[in-house]
Amino acid sequence: ESDFVQQFDEATSLYDMLATVLAQPPPWDNQQRPAYTVDSVDTYFLARPLGGMEKDERLVKVKSTMRLATILENPKYNILDGIPSFLVLPKSSPFTDQFIEHYRQQRLVNDSAITKSDK
After folding, report:
1. Distance, CA of 97 to CA of 10 (rounded, Å)
2. Is 80 exposed, middle or buried (0-12, 13-18, 19+ CB in 10 A)?
3. DSSP bridge pairs for 80
4. Cα–Cα dist 29/117, whole Å
5. β-bridge partners, 44
6. pLDDT for 17-47, tens place per residue?
7. Cβ-proximal residues to 93 (8 Å cutoff; 6+ apart), any chain
8. For residue 23, with 0-12 CB atoms within 10 Å meaning exposed, 13-18 middle and 19 or more buried, which class applies?
9. DSSP H or E run through 112
10. Average of pLDDT values for 43-63?
11. Of the candidates 16, 69, 79, which has an alpha carbon nearest to the alpha carbon of residue 45?
12. Are 38 and 15 in contact (CB under 8 A)?
């Protein structure tokens, strides 16, 4: 599921933006006990090396106290199609664990391939 924020001042913290977006539980979340609240989610972005492919992407966790401008200045951050994007996941859920593990395994495979090619 995606949510599009039309205006997000670069001086605003990610926490403040999430507080606005998640003020009401998303329609697909449990309305009585939502998993997506500003204090129960972690935020990430996908970092892709210049000229890299999707398989080269790394998951980078972002502190919610960071301002948008600071995140966008991170040399690992890529804006695709002119739109900054973030992944917002519950701090503890089976889906989040599987999602993070996928990227961890992908990184291990890629790092192993790089090490072998350097020999």
Report:
1. 30
2. exposed
3. 83
4. 45
5. 61, 87
6. 999 989 999 888 999 999 999 999 999 999 9
7. 35
8. exposed
9. helix 94-118
10. 86
11. 79
12. yes
If residue 75 lies in a helix (H) or strand (E), which one and from where to where? Answer: none
Looking at the DSSP bridge assignments, the partners of residue 45 are: 60
* Confidence at residue 38, expressed as pLDDT on a 0 to 100 scale: 94
Residue 118 has pLDDT above 90, yes or no: no
pLDDT of 52 above 80: no
Tell me if the pTM is above 0.85.
no
Q: CB–CB of 35/90 below 8 Å?
A: yes
CB 14 within 8 A of CB 68: yes
Residue type, position 43, single letter: T
pLDDT of residue 117: 55
Structure tokens at 38: 């500003």
Structure-token pair, residue 84: 């900054």
User: Residue 58 to residues 47, 69, 91, 114: CA-CA distances in angstroms?
Assistant: 5, 20, 18, 15
CA–CA dist 78, 80 (Å, integer): 6
